[in-house]
Structure formats: C-alpha cells, structure tokens
Specification:
The complex is a heterodimer of chains A (403) and B (287). Chain A has two domains: 208 residues, Rossmann fold (3-Layer(aba) Sandwich); 148 residues, Response regulator (Rossmann fold), CATH 3.40.50. In chain A, helix 5 packs parallel to helix 6. Chain A is an alpha/beta fold and 403 residues long. Chain A is built from 13 helices and 16 strands. Chain A is globular, with a radius of gyration of 22 Å. Chain B has 287 residues and is an all-alpha fold. Chain B has one domain: Orthogonal Bundle (ABC transporter involved in vitamin B12 uptake, BtuC). In chain B, a hairpin with a 2-residue loop joins strand 1 and strand 2. The chains are: A alpha/beta (403), B mainly alpha (287).
Chain lengths: 403, 287
C-alpha cells in the first residue's frame, strides 16, 4: 500500500513537472496577412545534441524572418498573397535525425521547400529523402563534397560560401596581416569531409606559398580538445586553421591552444564569435579570426541592423547566427517570388539562371558552376571579425571569388 | 622535443583522469551501495553546472560559494531522487534503470525548454596558465585535479572512518546481511544518493568552467563514467582512481597516433580487451 502511494505521488510529481514545462512551449498566435494563403516551408534544426546550442539560434533567426516577411505582407505568386509559415523538425545533431526530420517534413507536412540542415553528414542524410522527392533545400552550410552539393543533388542550394570558398581569402588575409607565417596547422572534425577537403586546402596553400601541415581530426563528441591541439602544435605551426565545427568546439580548441602556449593567429570558419568568446574565455580569445559579424559595428548592413533590433526585442539578445539563418530563408523566398511558382522544379530552374540576389549581408551573386558543376551557390562579400583581448572586433568585408 | 611532447601528454592524462574520476565517483557510489545504474547521473552533473552558472554568472555570487551551494542544492535533490524515484523499485534493476533513463529525458528536456540550449560557460574558477619544462597546465584544470583528489580522499575516509560510511561498505558487500545486522538500508541509501548528487554537481560546475554548459553535456561524460566504473570493478570505489588514470592516459595518448573517431573506438577496444581477461574489473572481486 505504501509503495503504491509513493508510486502515485511520484507519478503526480512527474506529471506536474511536465505540465509546468509545457506551459513554456505554448506560443502566441501569429498575425498573417488578411485573405492570404499559407506557404509552409520546412526547417531542419537540431533541438537536441551537441549542435542544439547553436541551432537554437538558427531557429530563432528563421522565426524572426517569418514575422518580418509576414508583417511586410508575405510573398506574392501570380498576384496572390501568401503568408509564410516555417515548420521545424528536430535534426537531433545526427544523420539519422536529419533523415527522420526530412521524412516527416516531406511526407507528413508535405512541404516543397526546406531550410537546413547544417553539417555534412546531416546534409547527406537529409538529401537522401529530399532529392528523390524533388523538394528544394537551402542548406545553411556544408563542405561541398560531391555527396552534399553538386550535380548529384540538383535540388540543393546554399545561401552562403563555405569552407572551400573561404580558403583562398583566408590564406590571402593571413599573408597580408602575418607575412612571417609559413606553416599552417589544421584542426577539423572527423565528419567524413576531411579526405575531400585536405588535398584542396593543401593545393590552395601551395598556390599562396604556404605550407599546410597534416590535418588533425577530432571526433564530434569530443569534450576535451587538449590532446588534439597538442598533436596539431607538435607540427610547429605558425598559424592554426580550425576548419568547421561549432562555437563550442572552436572555443574549446582556442582555449586549449592558448593554454598550451600557442600565441599565433588562429582562424575559425563561420562560427558565432560571441559564443566562441564565451567558451574560450577572455584570456584565450585573442588573435582569432572568423567569417562572421560584430553585430553592433557601423559596418553592418541596414538589414543586419534590423535583424539585431528584432532579435533583441523578441529574444533579449543579439546574435550573428540569426542573420545566417534569416539569409537562407530570405534567399529562398526571393527565388520563389522570382520564379512566380510554388513548384520546386520551376523555382530551381529559375534560381540557377539568376545572376544576382539580395542577401542580408549585401548584394549577392549566384555561382558554383565553375567549381562544383552546379549553379546553386549564393556568394557575397564575406565578413571578417576578430577576437581581441576577449572582445569581438570588426575587421572588414572581403570579396570571395565566385565559385 | 619528443620528451616535451610526452611530458605534456602525461600532464594531460592526469588532468583528464581527474575529470573522469570526479564524474565517476558518484556513479560508482550508487552502483556499489544501491545497485542502481544511475544513468541520470549525467543530467544531475548537467544540472549542477547550470545551478552554479545561475548563482555565479546571473546572481553574481562568489564562484566558490556558488560551487558549494550547487553541491548543496543538487545534493538535496538526491533526497527526492532516492525517496521517490529509486526506493519504490529497490532491488529491481530493470525498473530503476528505466526510471534513471526517464529522468534523463525529463531533466534534459526541462532544462532545454526552461533555459534553452544557448552556449554558456561557468566563469573560470582559477584563471591562468602555469608553464615549466616545456609543459603547460591551466590552473583551472589543476584546481579540478586537486578537488578531485581531495574529494576522493574524503570519500574513502568517510567510508572507512564514519559509522554511516562503514554501513555503506557493509551494504555494498552484502545487503541482506547488513539489514539483518540492523542497518537502516533506506537511510544509508539516502545519504549515498545525496553524496553522489553533490559529487556530480561539483563535477558539472568545474567542467562547466573548463568546457561549456549545455543540456546534453552529460551524455559523453556518462559514457566515460561507466567505462571507469566497469573497468574499476563494481564495488570498488578506490579502483575508480586506477581505472580513471588508465582511461585518461588512453584518451590523452591515442589522439597523437590516431585520427578522430578511431581514438574513441580503440579506447573502448582496450577497455573491452582488459575486461576479457578480468571480467570483474581491475580492482573488483569475483562474484
């Protein structure tokens, strides 16, 4: 009897906790343009797992865009207004999760357009569902391996430049600012892309007269990076490139590198410098460069400034990750409007013929055919931001060659 | 150059081992005394980190005081855990395991919903780096090592010198015999759970400063804790030190010679190999 009473009490407490938690999940109703039809767009964002810390901000950015565009009247297709509704599915920071999320979006929600996912293995997993279904995806990042992006994936677009595209501008920046640097160490996740990236980065290094040292791979579930950084530093690099990963990884590697006595310049990829600073701590956050924004710099575009205002008002904080996510959604809706169709094949055919597109970061161009055999890449001047003495400091906008 | 590298690896191994030991201590205690595979140790570790962050970074309380308060608050949660989650299923391995897995989902989701999974980090407890003889060592890792060693020592002394500690040892050796001798098994279990939760909170707070906080931070550390405890041998609290050092050494050395995911796979392979020769663990006793 006593045990039964205890079980009942435990059950009641558990249900109470779940009910209280569920109160926080209820969202207010959104306003939509009067008489507007709704265009549902899928979003694959990881709400659990190691990527969730950053992908939560991606979802926030998408929601900010949704409110913004609907406030402006949504989009018009053949004179008919459409409000935009994003439907999120959890990518769970894994390939399996991305497959499940894509399957749910394609079969249950019947979306024709998807924003996301981010990481190579998730992009490949998701593509195994979306490509046969001819659902158009705008992925947020990938390493542009042929399995992720290219002629094999005709319904995949990307709204920003990525690792391979950044390599030459990064190496040129390195030579300009640090002319004594000769040997560049590389740390990159063991996510399947490294065998593809290593020869490309080494080739680009040779072209710029720099020696790219052997890649050091770290597992995605690593919690302590010291051993991997020790290995990278054992090659005696003058500069460190941390190619791909999330701020939690970059911050931990930067912290380990500084603790181990490395004082040279270090480069990230596209990660949020504020989050890197949080993880690495002020003492380690110096002489570090990344392709991202200092959100309160006067050099920001009017759209970035507006996103920051909206983000501050809605979420109480500003983050460059909002802009990254917003930009993918923004490019997609422009392409749909330009095609004047909700058929993904029509939109795809129209988008790949476009020469230019507006981006949150400024004027964008469409490219990719030269390097990847498919004209599905939105390119724009890339931002450079540094971490200096624990502060995020704006550096410059720099041109990226059209891939 | 090679000797400098090896010295650095040796220092890293010690530091990594201290993190594993700190995480594994509480897990080993509950397994040893209550026979509970408390997978929820991972989320209690995470909750400890978040409580410390909230107190130190949000309320501006002194970090060391926040660490202690976190241990007290999360330790108190241990009372609830033992009374309502584990006691009703005492002796039933399957049900306690399901309960601990349910707790992971409930607590992870609750933290994820209530505070979000944004990147956070507990402010450093002891900033700075020590250098000498070609070896670098961050002070906060050294502090973690010292705290881990002190807690380990305190726990062993507690188990050997105090009455309730001896009762814990008695229960871990022969629970029915201990009950027949008049030991209140529920009371001892409650104390053990409080200690385990407090240890997890200390580990979470310290690791939240060394790495970062997120609702899923305990998942990977739990795997390490289980490896440490199984390798040590169930029932061997002291053996946790030895197996923690072995795992720390493996995880520090392998990345130098192997790449990425292969380090995890080979590390686990070595553990399995050891268990093939000593199924009872390195420091455990034959059943």
């Amino acid at each position: 009897m006593k045990t039964q009473r205890l079980l009942k009490l435990s059950g009641i407490i558990l249900i109470a906790v779940i009910l209280v938690a569920s109160l926080f999940m209820v969202k207010p109703a959104k306003t939509a343009p009067a008489n507007a039809k709704t265009l549902k767009i899928g979003a694959i964002v990881s709400k659990v797992g190691f990527a969730s810390a950053s992908e939560t901000l991606i979802w926030n950015g998408i929601q900010l865009f949704e409110e913004w565009i609907n406030k402006k009247g949504g989009i018009k297709i053949k004179g008919e207004p459409y409000s935009i509704q994003f439907v999120a599915e959890d990518g769970q920071s894994s390939a399996d999760g991305a497959v499940s999320a894509s399957t749910k979006l394609v079969t249950d929600d019947k979306v024709k357009f998807i924003v996301g996912p981010v990481m190579p293995f998730m992009v490949i997993g998701s593509g195994s569902v979306t490509e046969p279904a001819k659902v158009l995806r705008v992925v947020l990042y990938n390493c542009k391996t042929p399995e992720e992006y290219g002629p094999k994936t005709p319904y995949t677009f990307i709204a920003n430049d990525c690792t391979v595209d950044f390599t030459t501008p990064d190496l040129q920046f390195l030579k300009e600012k640090f002319p004594k640097v000769k040997n560049v160490g590389v740390l990159t996740p063991d996510d399947g892309a490294a065998p593809y990236l290593e020869p490309i980065v080494k080739q680009k290094g040779t072209e710029e007269g720099l020696n790219i040292l052997p890649f050091v791979l770290w597992p995605l579930d690593a919690t302590d990076f010291t051993s991997y950084v020790v290995k990278a530093l054992s090659y005696k690099p003058d500069a460190l490139f941390m190619i791909n990963g999330w701020p939690i990884h970059m911050g931990a590697m930067l912290k380990a590198a500084r603790e181990l006595g490395f004082t040279g310049p270090a480069f990230g990829c596209h990660e949020d410098p504020y989050d890197i600073d949080t993880v690495a701590g002020p003492a380690a956050s110096t002489n570090f460069y990344v392709h991202n924004l200092q959100v309160d710099s006067p050099a920001m575009t009017p759209m970035i400034k507006e996103i920051m205002k909206l983000g501050q008002a809605k979420y109480g904080r500003q983050s460059p990750t909002y802009v990254w996510a917003w930009n993918a959604a923004y490019c997609l809706t422009q392409a749909i409007e330009k095609a004047q169709s909700l058929d993904p094949t029509v939109v795809k055919n129209s988008w790949e013929k476009m020469k230019s597109i507006d981006t949150a970061y400024g004027p964008g161009r469409i490219g990719g055919i030269k390097t990847y055999g498919i004209n599905h890449n939105v390119s724009y001047k890339t931002p450079f931001t540094s971490l200096k003495d624990g502060k995020v400091v704006w550096v410059e906008w720099r041109k990226v060659p059209l891939p | 150059m090679v000797s400098g590298l090896l010295a650095q690896v040796a220092v890293n191994a010690l530091m990594l081992a201290s993190m594993y030991i700190l995480m594994a201590l509480g897990f080993a205690l509950l397994l040893s005394i209550m026979g509970v595979l408390n997978f929820a140790h991972a989320v209690i570790y995470m909750a400890g980190g978040y409580v410390c962050y909230q107190l130190a970074a949000v309320y501006g309380i002194n970090q060391w005081l926040s660490l202690v308060l976190s241990a007290v608050i999360v330790g108190s949660f241990g009372l609830f855990l033992e009374r309502f989650c584990y006691r009703p299923f005492f002796g039933d391995v399957n049900r306690t395991m399901v309960m601990s897995l349910a707790l992971i989902v409930i607590l992870e989701s609750t933290v994820n919903i209530l505070v979000g999974s944004y990147v956070r980090s507990v402010p450093s407890f002891a900033p700075g780096v020590m250098r000498g003889g070609g070896v670098s060592l961050s002070v906060e890792r050294l502090v973690t090592f010292v705290i881990g060693a002190l807690l380990m020592l305190a726990l062993i002394l507690f188990m050997q010198k105090t009455k309730i500690g001896q009762q814990m040892s008695a229960i871990s050796q022969e629970s029915i015999g201990a009950v027949l001798q008049g030991i209140n098994i529920y009371r001892v279990s409650a104390v053990a759970t409080v200690i385990a939760c407090a240890l997890a909170a200390v580990a979470g707070s310290l690791m939240g400063a060394i790495t970062n906080l997120n609702p899923f931070m305990g998942d990977q550390m739990l795997v390490k804790a289980i490896e440490v405890v199984i390798l040590a041998g169930i029932g061997s609290i002291g053996g946790v030190v030895g197996s923690g050092l072995i795992l720390g050494t493996i995880d520090s050395f392998l990345p130098l010679v192997l790449s990425g995911c292969a380090t995890d796979a080979l590390g686990l392979g070595i553990v399995i190999l050891i268990l093939l020769f000593r199924p009872q663990g390195l420091f455990g006793h034959e059943a």
